[in-house]
Design goal:
heterodimer, A: mainly alpha, ABC transporter involved in vitamin B12 uptake, BtuC, globular, B: alpha/beta, Rossmann fold, 2 domains, four-stranded antiparallel beta sheet, 10 strands
Chain lengths: ~325, ~250
């Protein structure tokens, strides 16, 4: 079994990942055409925003071994940058990139103190960082404080990404997601991918072979921050209203981690699988059983998250991606 | 010692002192390594052999003294910079990148001294071929047995085509026939690549067969230097290993 599992795992995984991505995107694009339901389309949009943030999270958490509990900070910075620049009259297409840039700059700045810490201490510090930023924004008048920001420009069309029908937001999100995935795939196939994985496996070995481990951990944070920022901006352009507790809360970080871990953190398609399967379930359960405070099963979607995560961590630490690999290998053997 | 130097020294270790709290792990250690030399370092447990390697590669910073490599004072350099300059090492406690394939382990090691991923892959293939691991290149490193892992460490160290190779107990845990195989391999690498090798070893019999010159460390001090035959006859060395100079030993 062990021998078989390791047999040519890499080439198998390479081809499988590509097909998984194609199937997931096919589903994202085609299923709303068949099941044209407002609620369902929204759930898929939420899922695709989480996919992008998850893929970015995996660059740090999966490839480099830097587990972040504070991605809500990058997400929120992207969201706020888009909201502010949109209202100043900057096209949102540029706003998306600017959102990524602001988050990346922030990541670069906080990397200096954060990377002095290792392991769980690093993770806890990222959590503190995001919470501090959220509270700061909550009291900062320039960004609307606790009242948040609304996108006030109402000009329909692709230029300002403002649509009457929700499905178009999904297509915008898919396009941004695919473009980001292509870039990230190139990044992880390059020197960067080798170096970060070496750092995850053994920092001493990485140094010994000539890798500037600090510099590459920093780079991982910047890349991860950039794409998480874009995800935050995508969220804003759809919901058109944000406040610190909507985009910078720990719940946001947690969602990103949950879908990534569920799907598999050692591959870029992991969060795609995770978000596609978990988000619709969670959204459905929340809406039907316990969405609002005071409902009979308030918060039950969190319980579902918990059960799914527990099962996966116990039986398949590599997430659903690993389950798929095992199924495929099982079939090959017969 | 200086009259032995034919080629220019590639590495100069000057008056190195390294303390751990009250313990003096290296006490004023100085020596030179000629280009292309095969130097052995031996000594009983706790003599400071691995500490010396850690000081040369930069994992530890000495309290006193200098490390001069290729004429450059690298005493304050970080590990990765020394590695890029051509100092490679293996670890006594093996540290393979467990969840990466054998091939990716070696490609990663070749990359910092390569211009492209493609070039690194070619170097990695050559390096794996040299240690006869090419047929296992797609296995995950954690699925190798310990002898194969030792060879992977060597392949990884060679992948960047280093100038100086430090082997920290590369023979540990191998059977006599495997030791013979590894020694033959090291000899052929030394011959074909003209690389300078420093080898720390516990297996006396093995290092006596391969090293051109041997340094003996005891309690952080160099107690003897010379050819394997000279060192083996040295009463101080015999005492260090056996605890008494009265015991007759033939090597």
């Amino acid at each position: 079994m062990v021998g078989l599992r390791s047999l040519d795992l890499k080439s198998l995984r390479r081809s499988i990942d590509f097909y998984i991505a194609v199937i997931c995107f096919g589903f994202l694009v085609v299923s709303p055409l068949i099941y044209n339901n407002f609620f369902y389309i929204n759930a898929l949009h939420t899922a695709s925003v989480l996919m992008l943030a998850g893929v970015a999270w995996v660059i740090m958490g999966g490839y480099t071994g830097l587990i972040s509990f504070g991605h809500a900070a990058f997400f929120g910075l992207g969201a706020y940058t888009l909201a502010l620049t949109y209202n100043w009259g900057v096209l949102p297409w540029l706003g998306l990139v600017l959102g990524g840039c602001v988050a990346a700059l922030f990541a670069a700045a906080v990397s200096y103190p954060l990377l002095r810490l290792k392991g769980r201490w690093f993770s806890l510090a990222t959590l503190a960082m995001a919470e501090a930023l959220k509270l700061y924004f909550n009291n900062w008048d320039f960004v609307g404080g606790s009242r948040g920001i609304e996108l006030f420009r109402k000009e329909y069309g692709l230029e300002w990404i403002y649509f009457a029908s929700p499905i178009y937001y999904n297509y915008v999100a898919y396009a941004v997601l695919i473009a980001s995935l292509i870039v990230l795939n190139m990044i992880v196939k390059s020197r960067f991918g080798y170096y970060t994985q070496a750092i995850r496996e053994s920092e001493e070995t990485a140094m010994a072979v000539g890798i500037n481990t600090f510099r590459y951990k920093q780079l991982a944070m910047v890349v991860s921050g950039f794409f998480t920022g874009i995800a935050g901006a995508l969220y804003t352009i759809r919901f058109r209203f944000i406040d610190p507790f909507a985009v910078m809360d720990f719940a946001q970080s947690l969602q990103i981690i949950v879908i990534s871990v569920a799907g598999g953190i050692f591959t870029l398609v992991g969060p795609i699988i995770g978000a596609l399967i978990i988000t619709p379930i969670a959204e459905y359960v929340r809406a039907v059983l316990g969405g609002t405070y005071g409902a009979k099963f308030f918060g039950i979607h969190m319980l579902i998250y918990g059960v799914i995560l527990l099962a996966l961590v116990l039986y398949s630490p590599g997430g659903l991606h690993d389950v798929i690999l095992k199924l495929k290998e099982g079939r090959k053997r017969e | 010692m200086s009259n032995e130097i034919v080629n220019s020294p590639i590495l100069r270790v000057e008056n190195i002192v390294k303390r751990f709290g009250g313990l003096v792990a290296l006490n004023n250690v100085s020596f030179e390594v000629r280009e292309g030399e095969f130097l052995g370092i031996i000594g009983p447990n706790g003599a400071g052999k691995t500490t010396l390697f850690n000081v040369i590669t930069g994992f530890l910073k000495p309290e006193q003294g200098r490390i001069v490599f290729k004429g450059v004072d690298i005493t304050k350099w970080p590990v990765y910079k020394r590695s890029r300059m051509g100092i490679a090492r293996t670890f006594q406690i093996m540290k393979p990148l467990e969840n990466l394939t054998v091939m990716d382990n070696v490609v990663t090691a070749a990359l910092p001294r390569s211009n492209s991923v493609r070039e690194a892959i070619e170097r990695a293939e050559r390096s794996l071929d040299l240690v006869k691991l090419l047929n296992k290149k797609d296995l995950l490193a954690r699925n190798l047995n310990s002898t194969e892992k030792r060879r992977l460490e060597i392949a990884r160290a060679l992948a960047g085509e280093p100038v100086l190779l430090l082997l920290d107990e590369a023979l540990a845990g191998q059977s006599p026939s495997e030791i013979d195989e590894t020694l033959a391999l090291l000899r052929s690498i030394h011959k074909s690549t003209k690389i300078t090798i420093i080898m720390v070893e516990h297996v006396m019999r093995a290092i006596m067969r391969i090293a051109e010159r041997i340094i003996v460390l005891n309690y952080g001090k160099i107690i003897a230097t010379g050819t394997p035959e000279e060192v083996a006859r040295d009463p101080k060395v015999i005492e260090a290993y056996l605890g008494s100079s009265k015991v007759e030993v033939s090597m």
